[in-house]
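Subject: for your reference before the review

Hello V.,

The reviewers asked for a structural picture of the protein, and I figured it would be easier to keep everything in one thread rather than splitting it across files. Below is the amino acid sequence we used in the manuscript, unchanged from the supplementary table.
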Amino acid sequence: MSRPACVEARQSVPSRKEVDPAVILRKHSYLFLLSLLLVMLTVSTAACGSETTTTTAASTETTAAPTESSTTTATSAQGPFTFGMLLVGPYNDRGYSQAHYDAGLYVEENLPGAKMVYIDKVNTADRPGTTPAQLAEELLAQGATFIIFNSDDMKDGAVEFAKAHPDIPVLHASGDSAWKEGTNYADLPNLGNVMGGMEYGKMIAGAAAALTTQTGQIGYLGPLINDETRRLAASAYLGAKYTWTEVLKKDAKDLHFKVNWIGFWFNIPGVTSDPTQVADDFFNQGCDVVISGIDTTEALIEAAKFTKQGKQAWAIPYDFSGAPEEAPEVALGVPYFNWGPSYLQQIKEAKEGTWAPRYEWLAPDWKDINDPDSSAVGFIKGDALSAESSAQVDAFIAELAGGLNLWTGPLNLQDGTEYLKDGEAATEQQIWYLPQLLEGMEGQSVAD
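And here is what came back from the structure prediction:
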């Protein structure tokens, strides 16, 4: 907002001997009253002008969400509350970061006085020379009193920032710093973790892939290699294997499940493998379904390209409920995160002064996994999923809701080491910290 120009009023001043003292007194009185009136008017105008603050979105700067709900009234009866969010990718990536960004909008819409400020593209390629902790300081300077770090690779930054600001509630989406039974417990009174139980979403994705493939070859387009990405890739495999053997009654040896990693959550030219090329390689090598584990929609776009060339190709994107819209004709569905309900609950608590850190690993709401107000994880079936397969996916979801646990032995790790004995159910720690891919999966288990 530009500063108004200053205007100086100039008047001729009569000489003292030309003015009657009584006239001077009356004029002073009038001037005093006029000045008082102007002061009152100025204060009133300033107060009105400060009631609303509208900010403009820019994807590479600290900003408030570009919606009507991001216009915050300072005199709101509920009181203002600014929360900040660090997004690893672009806020409109049609994937992981947009799922978080939309959750921030959900909070604004459902919590009076709430305003989101955010910084996106928080990664070393887009913002070289910066760290998540440093960028969180910028959110703090923007008035944020609750900070969300949205990516697993921001773990160290979240801990660093929480230690530096013990009076600021910090929430790390993913991570295990607040998990007392975890291996990375940090024991900080202002740092919490929340993660959706995407293992279920990936199992459903694997089921949809197995029901659709005509070649028995499924590709998994993976990001970087860590505990989270191993267990999610393995979950997709478990869903595919169960459906292949128990529903379709086919031999497990005829199912081929290959994982290729690009090196990060999305493409960084010159740093990662090109996900477009990796997806093309899958399709060219006989895979007709590619399940995406990265934040963006290259697998879906390439499946559509191959379909236009007359080949059979399908894909399952990830993270964001609207992702299939990129190429609905080849989308079998999408497992997605719904961060809105958990963010709303925690930010509401912070606003009310009742927030306490905790570790949450949230399963879907099995009454309706696509309920936007209750389920942390969902699966939306795609247009390319056949009617028969759609019914079988529904049946599989019902089995999961009824207690089906695919993380039950006998299961071996990729190198043949026994992972779970026959009938043994994995503990949360065994799933969270899966050290290798599972036997039957092809691909790299540990980063170089």
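For the response letter, the relevant points are probably these. The two ends are 51 Å apart (CA to CA). Residues 21-49 form the longest helix (29 residues).

Happy to draft the paragraph if you're swamped.

O.
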